[in-house]
Amino acid sequence: MNKKEKLIVILGPTAVGKTQLSIDLAKVLQTEIISGDSMLVYKGFDIGTAKPTQEEMSGVKHHIIDILQPWENFNVSDFHTIAKRLIHEINLTGKIPILAGGTGLYVKSLVEGYEFNKTSGDNAYRSHLEELATTHGKQYVHDMLKEVDPQTAARLHVNNFNRVIRALEVHHLGKESVSQSSQYEKTGELVYDTFIVGLNRERQNLYDRINKRVDIMMENNFIDEVKQLMDNGAQVDWQSMKGIGYREIAAYLNGDMNLEVAVDEMKKATRHFAKRQITWYKKMPYIKWYDADKLSYENLLTTVIKDCRNFFSDVE
Q1: N or C: which end of the chain has fewer CB within 10 A?
Q2: Would you say the pTM of this structure is higher than 0.85?
Q3: Which CATH code is given to the segment(s) 6-114+182-202+272-311?
Q4: 16 is annotated as contributing to ligand binding
């Protein structure tokens, strides 16, 4: 039997503190980071995505960041193709890659072994829709149906999510979808020899961090970033511009929303996104959780390093 490739995952809701922990852990283990965030792939989308700066990266090599132009689309199948190759290549060097995850579906489907190939295109499209709903909300997916099949959209409530997805699948593929299965569902085993670190915080503390992050983004000239993107031709209907923060500031710049409302909407949408992320993680019983409120950062880092070394007994 082939020995499984090794993988460390650091996940948790937005603003919980994943970026710093993943970079500091990577420095100690002398390894590389694979981003599992669906918005970090876009060039020029920096402030609103809290993309780590070159200074913050501290010389640690990062992958799947700044790989696409704003007009390009990216989905879970694309992520799989790139991430699986990187995990293999980094393992060949004797390092254990760190996947820093923010998009729950990306991480879950990768470690559980969802299949995305020509014969299961239905599954890939369904997962893409679920990913969009997780990132942007169910209304976003319902609006997609409204564009291609307004009659069906009028009949289906936004919360009747499975039927909304089915209607989009039928339009997209012209046939019924195939039920999704994964290696984990079949065998109870993850694809990789995986140690998964989950960071959590008390809800109000997390929400306070989210609100503060948005305030810092605004202080760091986020409006100018969005304006530059739009001046360079970015359209509000592009997948990239549907990201939280970008859509609200674009609405402000287009005169459809005043600034105070736009900032409040950013905070609210980010809090809702964090709740949806936590819901995703509840579907992943193999996560080892750490309470970032109860540990100092130094103790958290030390504990995670020790636990990683214990899990992978050959790690120095």
Answers
A1: N
A2: no
A3: 3.40.50.300
A4: yes
